[in-house]
């Protein structure tokens, strides 16, 4: 039987993952706070641990957790960091 | 032996033929079908080899003896990202290849000659075939079962068996098998039903991308969801307006679709179309019984869960959800109400038909059969909101929807109170000192406030939306709790009735 699909069956091209296995020593890690409660506390702890491993850190904050990040924020993270740690949920 | 040429629809759109596939080297055709467990195993085990084969210059191509939408669904669910083609009945290509069993894996060289063929699942045999394709060091998993017989190819079936497989025996079960449901039976979206739903509108018109998976909401897909939901074609303009309103970025459907909150999407219908469609704004307006209310709300939800990919338990991460997430649509009782209807409050002319969407929680019934004064009743209604979201979360900073029943409305009407007067009275009635709110889940506002500061439940009276609906007997109004943290605006769209 032929039916009209409610789904968008168009498959999006998968983007390759960034290379793994990056050494933390000397790397720049962006810590992204999505603006949920106590996310900053979590990232403070992660930041301290990263410093112990010789990483440089940058902090970024999303405007609101429930909406996609602004393209400018995504570009900034991509341009400035070697990797990103996101503080998700509360 | 020359391999038969063919051109079949690709699940990524457009036709694709063997001649084009073999321009860059050998082709491995894997004939499969949805119903065959060995095919499922084969596709699942071949999927991880896709990249290595591509690097070796070998094109891996699944040919499904299924319609394109089935092929696409199965490929997606099995994580198969290589080329996939669909060959619905009458299976001429399968017959040309002399298939008897699925899966059958056929190796065709760049010159178009068939050089090898394996039937069923045979890991060692497949590895030999891939070696003949010119690959090296491609390991096919020997996970048990390393050898598994296949099923009969569909091209060998008789007409009656094919009809059974195509779902003619039980279309409703077929819809469940496809996952085209919210858990309840649906109306199968045949091309005829979808065309009737569209009523001459452009099926390719795009209303936007539906979060969270950003599926494109063509009018045809929205119509398919409306059919699935059980809508009559006459309802479609309202469904379309609801989807357009829901996709307004200010509504933030993205956040609502995936949240752990029980966020539903209330559809409020105002204007003359309520009567045309028989929408219920009276007795049991928030409950069962009226097709238009139940199916219009359900159609919007199906657009979100199917086209948008927010399937409960997958991308929809609601901890509990609520029954309104099946469908949540109400009309306002404009003629029986002394108040301005919602769409007029929002700037539309009274004679226009308008849909408004509001993100909200499930209804809480508020019984008050004793209040005799309007201030008293306003206070009771307002205080019902005190524990919404969380008892100490003051102010809410989000919309609360009240559905005010006729007997309660009569009291306010006798006193000459407008909606805004009532909203102001409710807002002013509900206050508590900050010190009483400082435990459990509370707001930064409360934590920063002086302990004796009186905190209101809402940031402003504008966060209170009042609707008129309900049966004439019984002093039960309802409160629909807020959806927080979404910055979700109340969004309205005018219903355009002619295509």
Can you describe what's shown?
The complex is a heterodimer of chains A (90) and B (499). By secondary structure, chain A is an alpha/beta fold. Chain A is built from two helices and three strands. Chain A has a domain at 28-87. Chain A has helices spanning 39-52, 71-80; strands at residues 28-33, 56-61, 83-87. A three-stranded parallel sheet of chain A has the order 2-1-3, with helices on both faces. Chain B has three domains: 7-159, Glutaredoxin, CATH 3.40.30; 173-332 and 343-350, no CATH class; 362-482, no CATH class. Chain B is built from 19 helices and 23 strands. The longest helix of chain B has 17 residues, at 291-307. Chain B has a five-stranded mixed sheet with strand order 5-4-3-7-8. In chain B, strands 15-14-16-23 form a four-stranded mixed sheet. In chain B, strands 17-22-18-21 form a four-stranded mixed sheet.
What's the total number of strands of chain A?
A: 3
Main sheet properties of chain A: 3 strands, parallel
Structural class of chain A: alpha/beta
**Treating each run of at least 4 consecutive H or I residues as one helix, how many helices of chain B?**
19
Secondary-structure element pattern of chain A, one letter each: EHEHE
Which sequence of strands runs across the widest sheet of chain A? 2-1-3
The Rg value of chain B, from CA coordinates, equals 29 Å
* Average of pLDDT of chain B: 94
Q: In percent, how much strand structure appears in the residues of chain A?
A: 15-25%
Shape, principal axes of CA atoms of chain A = extended
Percent range for β-strand residues of chain B: 15-25%
Radius of gyration of chain A: 17 Å
> Largest contact between protein chains?
A-B, 17 and 45 residues
Placed side by side, the strands forming the largest sheet of chain B appear as 5-4-3-7-8
Proportion of residues in helical segments of chain A = 25-40%
Instruction: Report the span from N to C terminus of chain A.
Output: 47 Å
Indicate the overall shape of chain B.
elongated
Give the oligomer, counting copies of the same chain as homo and different chains as hetero: heterodimer
Distance between the termini of chain B: 55 Å
């Amino acid at each position: 039987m032929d039916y009209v699909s409610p789904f968008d069956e168009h498959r999006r091209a998968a983007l390759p993952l960034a290379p793994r296995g990056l050494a933390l020593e000397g790397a720049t890690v962006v810590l992204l706070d999505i603006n949920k409660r106590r996310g900053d506390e979590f990232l403070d702890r992660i930041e301290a641990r990263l410093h112990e491993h010789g990483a440089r850190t940058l902090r970024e904050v999303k405007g609101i957790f429930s909406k996609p990040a602004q393209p400018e924020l995504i570009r900034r993270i991509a341009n400035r960091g070697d990797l990103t740690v996101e503080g998700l949920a509360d | 032996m020359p391999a038969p040429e063919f051109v079949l629809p690709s699940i990524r759109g457009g036709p694709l033929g063997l001649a084009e596939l073999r321009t860059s080297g050998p082709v491995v055709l894997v004939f499969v079908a949805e119903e065959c467990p060995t095919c499922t195993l084969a596709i699942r085990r071949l999927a991880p080899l896709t990249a290595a084969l591509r690097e070796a210059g070998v094109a891996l191509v699944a040919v499904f003896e299924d319609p394109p939408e089935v092929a696409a669904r199965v490929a997606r669910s099995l994580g198969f990202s290589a080329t996939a083609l669909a060959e619905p009945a009458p299976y001429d290509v399968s017959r040309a290849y002399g298939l008897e069993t699925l899966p059958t894996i056929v190796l065709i060289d760049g010159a178009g000659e068939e050089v090898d063929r394996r039937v069923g699942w045979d890991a060692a045999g497949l590895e030999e075939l891939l070696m003949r394709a010119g690959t090296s060091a491609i390991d096919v998993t020997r996970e048990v079962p390393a050898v598994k017989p296949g099923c009969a190819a569909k091209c060998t079936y008789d007409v009656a068996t094919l009809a059974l497989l195509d779902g003619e025996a039980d279309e409703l079960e077929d819809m469940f098998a496809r996952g085209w449901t919210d858990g309840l039976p649906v109306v199968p979206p045949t091309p005829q039903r979808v065309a009737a739903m569209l009523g001459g509108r452009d099926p390719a018109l795009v209303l936007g991308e539906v979060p969270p998976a950003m599926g494109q909401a063509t009018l045809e897909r929205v119509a398919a969801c409306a059919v699935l939901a059980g809508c009559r074609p006459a309802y479609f303009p309202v469904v379309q307006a609801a989807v357009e309103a829901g996709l307004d970025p200010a509504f933030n459907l993205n956040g609502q679709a995936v949240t752990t909150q029980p966020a539903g999407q209330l559809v409020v219908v105002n204007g003359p179309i309520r009567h045309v469609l028989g929408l219920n704004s009276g007795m049991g307006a928030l409950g069962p019984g009226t097709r238009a209310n139940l199916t219009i709300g359900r159609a919007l939800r199906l657009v979100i869960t199917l086209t948008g990919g927010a399937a409960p338990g997958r991308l929809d991460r609601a901890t509990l959800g609520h029954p309104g997430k099946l469908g949540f649509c109400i009309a306002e009782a404009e003629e029986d109400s002394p108040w301005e209807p919602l769409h007029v409050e929002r700037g539309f002319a009274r004679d226009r038909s308008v849909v408004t969407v509001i993100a909200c929680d499930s209804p809480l019934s508020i019984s008050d059969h004793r209040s005799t004064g309007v201030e008293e009743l306003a206070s009771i209604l307002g205080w019902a909101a005190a524990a919404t979201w969380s008892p100490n979360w003051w102010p809410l900073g989000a919309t609360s929807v009240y559905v005010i029943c006729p007997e309660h409305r009569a009291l306010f009407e006798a006193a000459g109170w407008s909606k805004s007067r009532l909203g102001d009275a409710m807002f002013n009635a509900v206050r508590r000192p900050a010190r009483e709110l400082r435990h459990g889940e509370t707001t930064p506002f409360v934590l920063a406030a002086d302990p004796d500061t009186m905190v209101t439940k809402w940031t402003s009276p504008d966060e209170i939306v009042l609707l008129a609906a309900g049966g004439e007997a019984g002093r039960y109004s309802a409160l629909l709790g807020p959806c927080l943290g979404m910055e979700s605006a109340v969004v309205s769209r005018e219903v355009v009735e002619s295509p």
